[in-house]
Amino acid sequence: MIYPKKLEAIIEFYKKLPGIGEKSAERMALATLDLPTEEITNVSNDLIDAKNELRPCKICGHITDKEICDICSDEGRNKNIICVLEDYKSVFTFEKTGNFKGVYHVLGGLISPTEGISYEDINIPKLLERIENLKNPELILALKSNIEGETTTLFIKKILEGKNVVISRLSYGIPMGADIDYMDTITLDKAIEDRKKISD
Amino acid sequence: MIYPKKLEAIIEFYKKLPGIGEKSAERMALATLDLPTEEITNVSNDLIDAKNELRPCKICGHITDKEICDICSDEGRNKNIICVLEDYKSVFTFEKTGNFKGVYHVLGGLISPTEGISYEDINIPKLLERIENLKNPELILALKSNIEGETTTLFIKKILEGKNVVISRLSYGIPMGADIDYMDTITLDKAIEDRKKISD
Question: ∠ at Cα A164 (A92, A101), nearest 5°?
Fold first, then answer.
């Protein structure tokens, strides 16, 4: 082994992160050692704290260090417009556009009959509960354009039939099969602006 | 602020590492949260341990978690051939070629009259001490091909004049001004193989 044990451990850690190969991980680990002790101690604590403190918001399922996330507790946001997402990571992507003034609901997965994932396994019951307490709510379904995403979209549309809920989904601007997290903010803005009501 | 405080702190940390921009840092921080608690705890400890445990080898100045590094304490290596490097990071680069069976000496800097760095500010006195105790030693100077590198190379050559030391330096294969750490192993092998004795 070329590297001292602890340095090797840090390299192995960095290699687990997305887009980081062997050579990058090595350079990053060596650069880490060059940082002041204080910064190393801080990030070491931050890593543990982040893992311990961050949990799903009790209302929307977004990640937060509070009981209710900043978005759900923001009085300035329209609680009647709920953007439904598969993953909390996408909330950050949407928030960066800065233009969406509604709130979110994070499903934490998609319905998949082949993998045995039903609507009860993801955060849909909680979504239905939220909607019950709203007057004229609107749902914007921003799910992947693959089979699971379409299945989940159709399920939500079906289960809310007859209830007074406007359901739309993100429209053109998002390429088929692409990951929402890779979208540029202009495309995302466009997709929110041009959201399309699901017709029967 | 879009991100919870601790997550933001981790993003800021990653941004300090080489080659990591805003977007990469965000993706890496989010991916970090997906790792099991145990791995987070481990790397958190590894970071602090690495910073505390790793120190210069008492003989060659390479980074190590022991008093004497594995290379210096390796009986199979030729202690009479010393490859002189600016930075311990370059030791790892050389070790990856797997072909160099001598030992190293890490200067931890280069002589720079403009910046007021003399030979005593870097690890040269220790190098002279090492050489005193060797019979027919050979130095391979593998320093940058910039002014500071050339100055340091010439200084070492001059101070050892008349002593029975063969001094060579890495020859062609390394482009002018390039960083040794970016070399591929074949080029480095070639440069070791074709090292050139410094003529008067």
Answer: 25
Shortest Cα–Cα distance, A30 to chain B (Å): 7
Q: What is the total residue count of chain B?
A: 200
Residues 20 through 39 of chain B touching chain A, CB cutoff 8 Å: 20, 24, 26-28, 30-33, 35, 37, 39
Q: What confidence tens digit (pLDDT) does each residue in A105-120 have?
A: 999 999 998 999 998 8
For residue B48, which residues of chain A lie inside 8 Å, CB to CB?
Answer: 40-41, 44
**C-beta atoms of A4 and B53 within 8 A:** yes
Q: Report the CATH fold assignment for B63-197.
A: Dna Topoisomerase Vi A Subunit; Chain: A, domain 2 (3.40.1360)
List, for residues B113-127, the tens digit of each pLDDT value.
Answer: 899 999 889 999 999
Question: CB of B152 within 8 A of CB of B143?
Answer: yes
3-state DSSP percent of chain B in helix, strand and coil, to 5:
45, 10, 45
Domain B5-53 CATH assignment equals 3.20.20.140: no
Of A97-101, A103-107, B185-189, where does the model show the most confidence?
A: A103-107
User: Smallest CA–CA separation between A10 and chain B, in Å?
Assistant: 6
ipTM of the complex, rounded to two decimals: 0.76
